[in-house]
């Protein structure tokens, strides 16, 4: 409600003949609401656009000798998208049907700076006209004057204006879409903020950022945790392109963005050429397509760049961070007694996972404790040292008989042959060497074969994303401290199926490593 406006009864006494209007203001994209830094450097701030519309509404209302008794505002909300709800627009319709504002002022009409502020689609305009004309005599006001939307001429005029607005909205969307598509086909980078790793031209690499991004991709493929990579970014004093700290989700998006290997995406989908291969841009690349696919395979569905666009579901149920080396790998083999349905007591193996937890003891800062029976525990550092001894011995023996294998998809040649056949077939069709019948009989089969082979290659790369390292190399990197906790646990889970922990002897406070029994993954 405008400041200083009298109550409904007082206003009726002061100006009994006054026309009382409600005002509506809307703006589709308030970029200042999303960029506080830009807003701070400008005289324009978030909400300035809709405020200016209300100021013009006030001026026009005074010019027409009318009084605005309530203002409705939808900022940063499009009226042309079907899934966008405008809260104040809906509130205005409810008040129009009731005939009074929330404070009880009579409503004689609606004023706004233009018809398209209210309407960009037919359904909105029909709802508005129905609500406005629910009470006879109410008018629609714009800077050019008032309109009676119950008159045939005004209905036709507003309908034509609505159609023009709709066409303009469609043309604007098409121009923007075509502009983006042209840039994609020309191999040009996207518009918008500078991407991390590139200069302002979005084509030339920025050494400090691109070197870190390339290193982060390689280390992630090897199994490093994203949190470890973020700590390295902090150590190098690197920040995002908008000055923010590099956190896990941000770095994940940087590493899995298709542009790091030269690919281009549109609306969360890779842009492909006529042969089904990704379209390659003109900018300098950070890594290879093979490494990009490999790093994407290390993340769960929904967390990569291609799955984080507008409208996609966000990640939920994120697992709790594990802080101890043997958590969950350890299993309890303590015997527990329980009563069955018949009331008989039976004995079974607990077989519950054993996890680590901090203690207040200086000798053992953390213990591993069974989460099932709660009666089987052991010093954490003692178990971790024993797990490493078992692992080191196994790696040393494995190195003796180790033979490296090539990290190459075995059907790569078959895929290339199919692609070349399709290209040759299409060229012959273009040159009129073969007719339409032969082309359309053979092309769909080749296209389907190529699609299936590409999908098979992607699945294979996901399964082999981390490649294979020599056991001796793993041993050296472990001992040198190159691996973080996530990488160490990954190696343990590959070497062991589980490690059983037997219960200790009551009263014996000395840890006995013989209680541990490894179940090797042959």
Describe the structure.
The protein is an alpha/beta fold. The chain contains 16 helices and 15 strands. It has helices at residues 8-14, 36-40, 48-63, 87-98, 115-118, 122-132, 152-185, 207-222, 226-235, 248-256, 289-297, 380-400, 412-430, 436-463, 471-480, 485-495, and strands spanning 19-27, 66-75, 109-111, 139-142, 145-147, 265-266, 269-270, 330-332, 335-339, 345-349, 353-358, 366-370, 377-379, 496-501, 516-520. Strands 13-12-11-8-14-15 form a six-stranded mixed beta sheet. The protein has a five-stranded mixed beta sheet with strand order 2-1-3-4-5, sandwiched between helices. A hairpin with a 2-residue loop joins strand 4 (139-142) and strand 5. The chain starts with 7 loop residues before the first helix and ends with a strand.
Q: What distance lies between the first and last C-alpha atoms, to the nearest angstrom?
A: 76 Å
Q: Helix/strand/pairing class, anyone?
A: alpha/beta
Low-confidence stretches: 310-318
Helix proportion range: 40-55%
Overall residue-averaged pLDDT value: 84
User: Shape, please?
Assistant: extended
- What's the count of strands? 15
Across the major sheet, the strand order is 13-12-11-8-14-15
Number of helices: 16
Largest sheet: 6 strands, mixed
Strand content: 5-15%
Radius of gyration: 34 Å
């Amino acid at each position: 409600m405008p400041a200083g406006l009298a109550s409904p009864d007082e206003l009726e006494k002061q100006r009994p003949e006054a026309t009382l209007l409600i005002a509506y203001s809307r703006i589709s994209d308030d970029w200042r609401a999303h960029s506080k830094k830009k807003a701070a450097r400008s005289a324009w701030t978030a909400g300035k656009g809709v405020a200016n519309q209300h100021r013009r509404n006030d001026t026009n209302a005074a010019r027409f000798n009318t009084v605005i008794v309530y203002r409705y505002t939808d900022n940063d909300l499009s009226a042309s998208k079907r899934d966008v709800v405008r809260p104040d627009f809906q509130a205005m319709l409810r008040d129009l049907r009731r005939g009074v504002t929330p404070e009880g002022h009579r409503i004689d009409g609606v004023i706004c700076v233009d018809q398209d502020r209210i309407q960009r689609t037919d359904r909105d305009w029909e709802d508005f006209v129905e609500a406005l004309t629910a009470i006879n005599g109410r008018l629609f006001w714009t800077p050019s004057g008032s309109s009676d939307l119950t008159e045939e001429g005004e209905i036709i005029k507003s309908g034509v204006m609505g159609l023009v607005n709709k066409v303009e909205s469609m043309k604007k969307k098409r121009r923007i879409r075509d502009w983006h598509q042209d840039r994609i086909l020309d191999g040009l980078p996207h518009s918008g903020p500078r991407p991390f790793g590139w200069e302002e031209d979005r084509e030339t690499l920025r050494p400090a950022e691109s070197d870190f991004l390339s290193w982060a991709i390689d280390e992630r493929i090897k199994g490093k945790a994203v949190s470890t990579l973020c700590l390295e970014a902090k150590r190098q004093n690197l920040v995002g392109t908008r000055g923010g700290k590099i956190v896990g989700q941000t770095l994940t998006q940087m590493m899995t963005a298709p542009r790091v290997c030269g690919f281009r995406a549109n609306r969360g989908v890779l842009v492909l050429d006529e042969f089904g291969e990704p379209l390659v841009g003109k900018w300098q690349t950070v890594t290879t397509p093979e490494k990009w696919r490999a790093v994407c395979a290390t993340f769960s569905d929904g967390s990569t760049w291609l799955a984080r666009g507008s409208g996609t579901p966000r990640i939920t149920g994120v697992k709790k961070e594990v802080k101890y080396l043997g958590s969950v790998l350890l299993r309890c083999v303590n015997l527990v007694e329980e009563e069955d349905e018949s009331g008989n007591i039976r004995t079974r193996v607990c077989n519950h996972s054993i996890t680590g937890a901090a203690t207040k003891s200086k000798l053992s800062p953390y213990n591993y404790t069974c989460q099932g029976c709660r009666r089987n525990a052991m010093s954490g550092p003692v178990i971790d040292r024993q797990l490493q001894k078992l692992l080191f011995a196994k790696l040393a023996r494995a190195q003796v008989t180790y033979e490296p294998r090539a990290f190459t998809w075995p059907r790569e040649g078959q895929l290339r042959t199919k692609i070349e056949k399709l290209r040759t077939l299409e060229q012959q069709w273009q040159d009129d060497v073969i007719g339409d019948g032969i082309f359309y009989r053979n092309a769909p089969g080749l296209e389907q074969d190529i699609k299936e082979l590409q999908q098979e290659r992607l699945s294979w790369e996901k399964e082999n994303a981390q490649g294979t390292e020599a056991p001796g190399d793993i041993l050296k990197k472990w001992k040198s401290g190159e691996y973080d906790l996530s990488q160490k646990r990954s190696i343990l889970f590959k070497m062991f199926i589980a490690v059983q922990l037997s219960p200790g002897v009551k009263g014996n406070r000395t840890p006995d490593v013989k209680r541990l029994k490894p179940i090797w993954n042959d």
